[in-house]
Design goal:
Chain lengths: ~130, ~375
Amino acid sequence: MKHESVPIYWRNIPHYYRLVAKRCKKCGAVYFPPVIKCRCGSKELEDFELPHEGKLVEFTVLYQVGTDFLKQKPLVIGLVELSNGVKVVGQIVDVQPEKLTQGAKVEAVFRRVMVDGKYGLVMYGYKFRPVDGV
Amino acid sequence: MRDVYIVGGALYPAGRHYGKNIDDMAAEVLDKALAEAKTDIEAVFIASSTAELANKQQILGAYVLESLGLDKIPVFRIEDGDGSGGAAIALAHHVLKSEEYNCVAVVGVDKPNDVLSNQQQDIYATTLDTYFERYFGITPLAYAALMAKVYLRKYEYRYEELAQWAVLMHKHGANNPYAYLRRQIKIEDAINSELVSEPLRLYDIGPLADGAAAAVLCNNKKDGPRILSASVSTNAIPFNLRQDYDTLYSAQEAAKKALEKAKVTPRDIATAEVHDSFSIFGILALESLGFVKRGGALAAIREGDLPINLSGGLKSRGNILGATGVYQLVEVAWQLIGREFKRVDGDYGLVHNMGGVDRVSTVVVVGV
Ligand SMILES: [Zn+2]
C-alpha cells in the first residue's frame, strides 16, 4: 500500500465503517475523531455511533488532489452537521457539484475510499450523499 | 535573565534548486550567518517539515554540521509542519533565556521540489490528521477553501476582494531579492487563474519552494535586533468541531502571550510577517493577531497598503514549509534595520508562523 498500512486501516474500521465516536459518560461530550480523555477530565468514554443523517453546512469542490485521488478528481469536500449537532467533514458523493447547495439534506454512506495501485487492496469508509439527490 | 539578540542572519533565495542537496543548502546559510555573527555556537536547532518525506534524510542537523566541519555540537531537529521554523526559534529563545547556552543557531530548511507536485500534495496533507482527514482525500487547501467561503459569506465580501491579497503580496515581493515569484501582478491575473478549490484559485496559494534560512542568536552580544518574546500555542480542536471558521485560535493565543510578554500592542508593530500559506489565512491572521477588527481585514487592504508581509509573504516569497518561520524572523529583523529591505518606520516587528490549518502558531516580537 502506498500510504496506509493494513494495521492502521484495520484499527480504524469501526470509525470508518459506522461513524463510531466517543462519548463522555460523565458530561456527555461527543468526540469525533475519538479521544482518550474528555475535556471535563473524565477518562470514562464509551463508543457512540453518530447519526447517519444531517445537513450540509459548507462545501468546496477540490481540483488539486493527492496521488491516491487522481482518478476521483474533483473531490467535493463538505462540512456536515449531523442530526444531533455533531459536525463531520467528508466527501460528498453522487452529486453534480454545480447543483449542490448549502443546507442540502445528506446521509452517510459506506464507500470505497481508495484502491492501492500496487497490491490492489481496497479501503473503505464513510462518505455523504444528498438524500434528495442532485 | 539576559536578552536575546539576532547577531547574524542569512537567506537562500527561495526557488527550485535541483542542483543542491538539502544538507548543503542548510550548511551554506548557516556558514554565512556564522561569518556575520563572528561567534562560536553551542547548539543548532534545525527546523524542517519534509526532510524525511521529500529528501529521505533524517538526523539532518548532523549532516549540515558535517558539511561545515563543525564537530561535537548538539543538534536538535524541530518538526511542526510549516510551523517548524517558528517553533525552533521559540525553543532557541527559551534556552538562551535560561542561559543554558550563550549562542545558538536556528536553521530552517526544506526542499519540496525533490518530489513531483502530486506527491507534494500527499506530503503537505500529512500536516492534517492522517487517519481522519488525509485518509479521505482532504488537504489543507480544501480546509482553506471552506474557511474562505465562510468568511466571504459572513462578512459579505466578494472573491475579487480576497484576490487583492495576492496583488499586495506580489507588490511587496517584487522588492525582495530572496523571493520566489518576484514580479507584480494585476487583479485579473489572480481572478483568472485556475480554480483549485472553489472559491480559491491558484493565486490564493503560497507556492511551495526550496529554501533555507539561518539566524545566530546570542544572549552575550548586544549586536542587532532583539527578540523581545516568542510564544507558541496549539489549537487542539479538530476542524469539524471548531466553534467558528474565521478565527485562527493558535495565532490569537500565541499573539496574546507574546505581545503581553514584550509589553507592546498591535498598534506598536511597524512590520509583520504573517503565515499566508493560503490568502485566507493571511486575512484571518491579521484579524486574529489583533491588527484589524474581525471581518475588517479585506476592507483595510482596500483602503491602504498595509505594512504586512513586506517580503511578499508565502504567496510571493514562497512557502518554504519548515523554513518559513526562520525566513520571517530574518526578514523582520532586516526590515527593522533597513538591510536588503526599505527600513520601516518604527521599532517593533512581529512574526507569525503557523503549522497546518491552525494547529500550531508561533508569534515572535522583535525590537530595535
Ligand atoms: Zn466529560
